[in-house]
From TrEMBL:
Key word Ribonucleoprotein present: no
Protein's name according to its UniProt entry: UPF0056 membrane protein
PANTHER family, per database record: UPF0056 MEMBRANE PROTEIN YHCE
Alphabetical list of InterPro entries matching this protein: Multi_antbiot-R_MarC
Entry's family note: Belongs to the UPF0056 (MarC) family.
Localization of this protein: Cell membrane
Superkingdom of source: Bacteria
Transmembrane annotation, as ranges: 31-52, 72-91
GO CC field: plasma membrane
Keyword Cell membrane appears in the UniProt entry: yes
Membrane topology type: Multi-pass membrane protein
Keywords: Cell membrane, Membrane, Transmembrane, Transmembrane helix
Amino acid sequence: MESYALPLISGPGAIGVVIGMSERTTEMGDYIGCLFGIVLLGLMLYLCLILGEPLAKRAGSHGLGALNRVLGFFMLAIAVQFIADGLFDLVKQAAPNLLH
């Protein structure tokens, strides 16, 4: 079984999300939650890679197109949240009295 998806799974996007989310952790519970999320994602990813081909055949081109759009929307939402957080932090540092 060949695995062509590995570079996309562990690429810069995945690393960026882990770095961005780990920046918000402050307590041990946060770290445990992140670790639990990573393990859960790993298990889900394993199942997707094992069951991906049979599910893709069953879903067909229309189902895969819909799934692609939904996942693209989720990625857009994460990107917008990162940009908004960065802009708010920038404004807080540049003009601390502006946002109370």
